[in-house]
Amino acid sequence: MTQIAVGTHKGAYVVEGSGHHWSVEGPLFPGWKVTTFGRAPDGTHLAAVGSNWFGVGIHTSADFHEWEQTDTPPAWPESGARKMDQVWSIHDDGARLWAGVSEAGLFTSDDQGRTWAPVAGLNEHPTRSEWMPGFGGLCAHRILTAGQHAWVGISAVGVFRSDDNGLTWNLKNDGVPPVGVPADVPRPEVGYCVHGLTHDPEHPQRIWRQDHAGMFRSYDGGDNWDRVENGLPSGFGFVVWRDDNSGRLFTIPLTSDENRVPDGGELRAYASDDDGDSWQVSGSGWSEAPQYTGVLRGAFDGDNQGMFCFGTTGGKLWLTPDNGGSWQELAPSFPRIDAIRLLS
Questions:
Q1: How many Å from the N-terminal Cα to the C-terminal Cα in the chain?
Q2: Domain holding 98: CATH number?
Q3: How many CB atoms lie within 10 A of CB 160?
Q4: Reduced to 3 states, what is the DSSP secondary structure of residue 129?
């Protein structure tokens, strides 16, 4: 039995079932935008919610049914100019939780998500005054960790890496074109709109990056990036995921920055089995009807054992149980989907 948590603009839902039989529980947090899900080191579930009127909140649960709101979610000082708009990502490194937020910043929790502390080395980075938002805002939305190393993707700033457990951070964008900067203008230090990051946990310096400017790969922890788009109809998109058991990569191309829907309405996941050197349409089961809908940067998840799921801005769920061999569009429809979490 598969369970999928779905975060939308109007609450969260739990989809449960298999084959062609699926049930829906919800909504949880009705009326709230549910922006991401997480899991604490002790197994506690977390859900981040947001409201234009009531701000940002973190809820915790032992069973994904009964929830309790924490008293101290990530927050900027009330006396400062920064506004806490959204929690974009919650990452568990096995001992500590990390949260990426907008207005862009990074926070950590050492008590299963009940309280959060700012990561000053990133939040007060010397380049901070030059940070500018992308279309989705100024947001820290992707976090990777491996031992004392950590990587954070911020739109539209770039990828940062720390080699000392988050104390200090350096920009790592060589090889990636900046957004909206003519070729004859000196290369800026910031202005790189990363959309997604994934890496190989056994060799964490091997990283893949879905960027505003295309799909890229680094073999040296982000010191250098190379374009890897052979076989893709477009380099633009928001999704990059690696199934760690097989090493297969997935992405979902969209037409372009100006037209953020699948090319020709052909919604497809693409897969690579050679570290991104080549890509091809993943499996079968795709709709023949036009699907002019997008997939957002938090609206996908996999279990590293062959199951991968994504949700669309049109409120539909797509699932593969066999590492991309076959795909199924699930029957339920939802509001615009912002977050996906595979529960089982």
A1: 7
A2: 2.130.10.10
A3: 25
A4: helix
Domain total in the chain:
1
Structural domain span for residue 122: 2-342
- 316-336 pLDDT per residue, tens: 999 999 999 999 999 899 999
Write the pLDDT tens digit of every residue in 248-280. 999 999 999 899 999 999 999 999 999 999 999
51-78 pLDDT tens trace: 988 899 999 999 999 999 999 999 999 8
State yes or no: pLDDT of 183 exceeds 80.
no
State whether residue 46 is helix, strand or coil.
Answer: strand
- As a whole number of angstroms, the distance between CA 165 and CA 25 comes to 39
CA distance 24 to 42: 27
Burial of 270 (0-12, 13-18, 19+ CB in 10 A): buried
Placement of tokens 């000196």 in the chain: 186
Helices (H), 64-213: 120-123
Could you tell me whether strands 170-171 and 226-227 are parallel, antiparallel, or unpaired per DSSP bridges? unpaired
% of the chain exceeding 90 in pLDDT: 91
Residue matched to tokens 């062609």: 20
Across 247-269, b (16+ Cβ under 10 Å) vs e yields ebbbbbbbbeeeebbbbeebbbb
- Residues 241 and 192: their CA atoms lie apart, in Å, by 20
Three-class SS state of 278: coil
Distance CA 64, CA 203 (A): 33
Q: What DSSP designation does 326 have? A: B
Alpha carbons 105 and 166: distance in angstroms, whole number: 12
- The structure's pTM equals 0.96
